[in-house]
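ingest -> fold -> write
write: protein_1
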Amino acid sequence: MSLLPVLAVAAAGALATLALRGRRRAGTIAGLAAGVALLVALAVASPGEPLALGGGALALTPYARVLVGIALAGGLLVLVIDRLATWEPAAPATLLVAATGALLALGVAGALTGILAVGGTAAVSAAVALGAPATPLGVRALARELRGVTLAALVGITAVALAPEEIGGLAVQPQVAGLAAVAAGLALGHRFGAIPLHARVARLVDAAPASALPALLALLPAAWAVVLLGWGPDTLGPVRPVLGWDGTLLVAVGLATLALGTIAALAQDDVLRIAAYTVVLDAGVVVLGFASLDPAGRDALRAWLVPFVASRTALIGWAIAFRAAFGTLRISEARGWLRRAPTLGAALVAIGAAAIGWPGLLAWDARLAVLGAATAGPALVVGSLASLGTAVALARIVGAGLGRPEPRVAAAPGELARVPAGLRAAARAFRAPGARRGAVLRVASREARPLLELNRTPLRALVVVVLAGLALLAAAGAFGVAGAAAGPDVGLPAATAPGLEPTVVPAEPTPVPGAPSGAPGTTPGGG
């Protein structure tokens, strides 16, 4: 199966959920069914040769299948958690629109078309999540998001135009290449919420449905990163030795984001905001990965993005379950929560382990490889320590769970399963000699809904554990993450898509200042 049938399944599911989002039961069933159908389509699809479409190409890459598949599986679990707590009608459609657009953006040839695809998807996803119901807070957040998407897309398109994918263009000029690198890096930082471009993250958390945040804060920013990473190192990397100020600026932004993002996450009292600011924190890793313009660093960053998406999706799902269990998102109002929700505590520890990893785990090794490609010496030490900020922020939540429970927490239902009295009586009657079992089964069926109502808390905790397990698998490199991230067809840059080879225009070598003529320090103009 090529990408076109997968896109057809995804688009049909997105349209169905959009049409039914105003109906509680039908919208829930349509959203979950469409998500499962898309997962099955991704599982049975086999990446193959790109399909030529006009002057471009379209293909399902192994990396796109892994990234979107894990994001979709996690997003569906978050929807289940949310449905066991409340109902947010825009969330299923937002997830499916984001998955469809991400598959398209990661499957088209060329950075320009990829930027247009992911930018358009981000705008539509924000409109779906924030447009209905049209509250003043949501409208303001949507307006900010649309402005941000438009600006990021324009800056990214400008960067690609300054340093075109066809080698031999203006990219041989160091000043132009520097401008292109900074422009693309800042556009990428904006989509992740790098400091000082993090205001959009806080606005989205306040206005968007919580179960739509995995698509808006994790999957779509990751798609932006993959598109620009498929262009930057191959286009700007050949002239990297003659650059200086641009790389320094991006490295400074990345390190500052890691450090200040950790402080911002620790300053939050709302667990959903803490989850969002861990995304801001890790925006520093993404900016540093792009700043290196190193193919090895690029592959490491692409591998790291998969556990990043999985762990942040799991953390948002955990926050939704926490709010449903205790009626608040504030740590200060839920002290001692760990005694009433030990399963949530174990899941949070697992999510933290997936987000950070440990030596030998893909999440850990890939993150250090990204930092090592962009920094060295003291900067590497600072970046490595600051990148542990997510673990510190989550440890603070766990610490608040120790001690004596607050009255709100003490009154909350625990995680032990409970059986309604009517169902227990029906079970005894069913086992009795000569029982009219048909009548007993009818009584038992009537007790199914009370059984669900009594056990929403343990069911949510169980789904969170599954979500944490998915994040751990992604962090360990399951599903072929490392091999897919190192594949040469990731992002399908136009310079490597079959049938789309650019015409290389020979250029004179660009001398490195201070290097003798013909020395190894000279860089060929076309890379």
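write: protein_2
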Amino acid sequence: MTALTSALDIQGPDYRAHRETMLAKLADLDAEHTKALAGGGEKYVARHRARGKLLARERVELLLDPDTPFLELSPLAAWGSEYTVGASLVTGIGVVEGVECLITANDPTVRGGASNPWSLKKALRANDIALANRLPCISLVESGGADLPSQKEIFIPGGAVFRDLTRLSAAGIPTVAVVFGNSTAGGAYIPGMSDHAIMVKERAKVFLGGPPLVKMATGEESDDESLGGAEMHARVSGLADHFAADERDALRQARRVVARLNHRKAYRDPGPALPPKYDEEELLGIVPGDLRTPFDPREVIARIVDASDFDEFKPLYGTSLVTGWATLHGYPVGILANAQGVIFSAESQKAAQFIQLANQRDIPLLFLHNTTGYMVGKEYEQGGIIKHGAMMINAVANSKVPHLSVLLGASYGAGHYGMCGRAYDPRFLFAWPSAKSAVMGPQQLAGVLSIVARQSAAAKGHPYDDDADAALRAMVEQQIESESLPMFLSGRLYDDGVIDPRDTRTVLGLCLSAVHTAPFEGARGGFGVFRM
């Protein structure tokens, strides 16, 4: 066994300080998650319950197999915007009748479940995950369609939701719609384009135009039931494949549909795996509050991989990037983790070779971010940092094995790209509350703007206002700091969620299980030209 030996002093003052900082960040995170769980607030939750209806997450819970986890995705979508945290939609991965499924559920306590721009982005991200990992897609529908005041931001791109449903079906990935209430206008196409549709008696209302619109368009008088009720669609139009007596019956029928899908994983789940040698609780005290202070990512690896067993690749070369092989919940992974923040030429070349090896062996890659980016300066430019950094990014961009990313600390500049940031399509990307991501650090960015402004003033022969410069730097630093924080980035769906460090192994295990539902094969020399 090549088990890692921890040097973490869990009784030391540095560890205790880091832990306290992380716990404070987790408390803030819990408060924001509570807002998402609250949906539209007490008034609208009470109104919904008074109608005898289940809440969105209660529907999800009854759909899932008992005592199985639900990996909720993008719970902080819309954070910091004018829309409710969570974007009136619940998405995630859970097990139904032994089958891993991508589940979406409208939250009708938020403006009747109407879709706003962030709901749309969240739904499209969920569809991408379902398609990439071949996960059956179950839609728990209760929505009045588009949030009309924001229609200009929804209508044009919104058609991609219906496109995705047909593409999923065409790829042989089952789609199931369970309609609990309104599914009107564009929302009517969700059951209309799903492989299987279940509707709840006297509750489901599915029509392109409701009675008021029909009256305006044609002069015809109609009522909800005859126009789009569940019984009409079950007996007359044929849109409903299954007619449910109530919500619980609808969820029972959805489970039976999934049980009959004959949907199989491409790979068998591995057998039992040994847990790490070290306590996951200790993950709270590894990352410093000040990300300029380096930390050893091996301490993180030792607490998330099976038996803390890690075979390091090129341990004496390019030492600011740790690379190596491990298993996680029995699944083989190749790990790339930033050790000292900066990525030099040696690290870039080491990463490119390691990524090629993982593709030769068909092994998924896990990127653990803590980087300020690629090294700058005359010595490094002359040494070829651009072409070597490009080599690493080339390898990441053209790698064909699944990628998972976790932002532990800093993830700045092109280093974010080289470590498989969102633009490079990792199958899943999560962040710790300690993470920050931006073009560069706040102080560096403010300093660059200051230097440029000072040089411009000198070139024009103008005096430079140092007081105004100090005020500008402070303002820029504050703005960049706030825009670098994980909740801000998660609100814009630049990650799939901000997670408690102690949950990292579990979250990655669920992701790896989902990844192994779809077949994959590494690139065999299919990379761009490596500049030498």
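write: annotation protein_2
The CA atoms of residues 412 and 441 lie 7 Å apart.
Residues 440-484 form one domain.
pipeline exit 0
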